[in-house]
Structure formats: C-alpha cells, structure tokens
Amino acid sequence: QVQLSESGGGSVQPGGSLRLSCAASGSSIFSIYALGWYRQAPGNQRELVATITLGGTIEYADSVKGRFTISRDNVKVYLQMNSLKPEDTAVYYCYAAKTGLPSSWGQGTQVTVSS
Questions:
Q1: Which one, 19, 38, 53, 65, has the greatest CB density within 10 A?
Q2: What is d(CA 113, CA 15) in angstroms, rounded to the nearest whole number?
Q3: Mean pLDDT of 48-60
Q4: Rounded to 5 degrees, what are φ and ψ at 62?
Q5: 46 by DSSP, 3-state: which?
Q6: How do residues 39-50 score in pLDDT, each as one tens digit?
C-alpha cells in the first residue's frame, strides 16, 4: 500500500504562485513508477496536470505548460505553480502509479485563484 500526504494549497490572486508538496509512504513505495498531480474543478472531470516517472520523464497538460513545474525527490513530488489563472482553481490530487494508471491518491488540496 502507498499513502500520499499533500500540502501547500491555498488562495492566491491571478498571477500569483503556489507550491504543492506530496509525500509517499507505506510498504509499497519501492514499487512506485510515477508520481504526479491531477486536478478537478466543480462540474468537471478529473484531469491530469503533470507527471514524472522514476526515470525523470515529465509530461504536462497543455494548459499548464510554461507555468507549472513538477519535480521529484525520491518519494516526494512537488508542483510549482506560477502565473496562476482563475481557471486553475480546482482541488489538486497527488497520485502514485505502479504502471501507467494511478493506483493511489492523496486526499486533495484546494487551490483557489481569485481577485
């Protein structure tokens, strides 16, 4: 089993920055292949924001390219979010994957971008 603990959400004005953190723990952490972030806004489906694999391969959603940066330190993953827009408002979920699909989820952290 893998447990994920997130932190770093909050409220910020448009153009501001936030940094999300997620730490993995549990008996199966050595089976983690990829870590990353999804987000879900009210009324919308959960969407992939960014992912980073054990080998360092990174992917971003087109909507966040150039603004968000994902990084990984062993079993911790971070999401630096710059130039935030109101449309970035969502609950952000950390995930861990053993193969291609998420197998564990964090509890979610709210990010609100509003003036």
A1: 38
A2: 9
A3: 95
A4: -55, -35
A5: coil
A6: 999 999 999 999
